[in-house]
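_Backbone structure tokens_
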Amino acid sequence: MKNAKHPATISRRDFIKAGASVALASAAGSRAAAAGTPTPANPSLLTRENARAGALDWQLTRVRLDKPGGPRASDIEGYCSKQSVLAGESIDIMVSTRAPAKFTIEVFRTGYYGGRGARLMTVLGPLAGKKQPDPQVGEKRLVECRWEPSATLKIPADWASGVYLGRLTTVPDSADKPYWQNYVVFIVRDTRRADVLLQCSDNTWQAYNKWPDTYSMYTDPRGAHARDVMGSFDRPYGKYAQIYENPQSIGSGEWLCFEFPLAYWLEQHGYDVTYCSNSDCLEASQITRGKAFLSAGHDEYWDLRQYQATKSAIESGVNVLWLSANSVFGVSTFSNSSDGRPNRQLNREGHFSGLTDAEVAEAQRVLTKEYKRIGPDESLIIGARTIIPFNGGGDWICTKPDHWIFAGTGMKKGDSVRGLVGWEHHGAPAKIPGNEVVAEGMVWAGGVKPAHWTATIFPGPKRNFVFNGATIYWAQGLASPPGHMLPWSHWSRPHGPDERVQRITANLLKRALA
């Protein structure tokens, strides 16, 4: 496992050289992006980035929902014009305030930063805020805001790839009035070769987003998995709608809930990691620039092009770590926004074809009569798949302790990491040559209805491998950074960082990066 450098070990000369190399790489990346050509590696970039001082104050302090249990906090709220942006490009930030008010946007890059979790990059404002119009509900229950930009941010050449939070804060006009806060979230990507490519599961963030009230892709009157229902990225992220009450999720999607602990741990230990959105993985060339491709958290919604790109990347020798679950389940095709920006809308057209006929019948009975398989079998690129029951919680139990992934963990057959599996999972191992079940056990939906989950690993064609951790909660076992809280569902909960989960992940990455 690599160790991040202490700030005191970075000389002024090295710092200047690093800044110059980042600037050159970013400029080259912007030129190469259109052609899809990876640019040169810069393996020390994030080590140097994390040697910089982290922020003591970057979380949300004062938030107020419009109604108890609701998703919206309209005192101040906003969204960005793109899911991800290259250095040198610009991104618009749209903000609405309940009443006319000044506000600021503090932009933070999330990472390790000596345990602080984020670094302040810039401050925009004070800016003039106003109430922007609520959108009408369109065809296929599409809710798309068409707000005026409140600020335009050109991404500096030296901003490292990562997940960025813009903290929106109202500025009271007198000391006897309170301020209110919210987030916007965006990804800065690059085109460089890197050891690790971490794909954020932002399609799924948006699918579950209920903003402004009950307009997620799960609230269609026809049922939770109805076909031809749409979601738009042109709207704020409401408070995360499942599992627990996490106020830090307002405006930040599911990043702080299920994915940030993985990024925090990777950067803490000096891994060379770069970040992207689901929409950045429509071509294999964007995946093959990494030695290891990581899916994090809840990665349910994929365009068919993502499947084909990932399948091609595996065939090309990329190692894939599914540190996620319920992955590649809903076939969700991208389309343009009303003003022509690419990949800003999702349409759930059906589901990947992993479920058996009996499981489909159960899904049609429980979820919607319209449930239909239209894509390929997702387990062929994962090693296992979503099963029925969908939900549940359980322990992650070692069944093959002599496998190399368990080296140094001390785990014996039957040893478990309590509560690590949930609240959705993978099971039913794929019939792939060499596919091995390395851990398995039971989950209980509603705390009582059993289902059998399986963690798997299978060899790729070029000495690469594909690992499936079989749980949305994998990152909970790696770290518990600021801004994060543990989930709880189905009367089961993970316990937080666990040395065994950390060692397994380190073993996987050591093999993947060798």
Remarks:
- The two ends are 12 Å apart (CA to CA).
- The chain has one domain: 1-514.
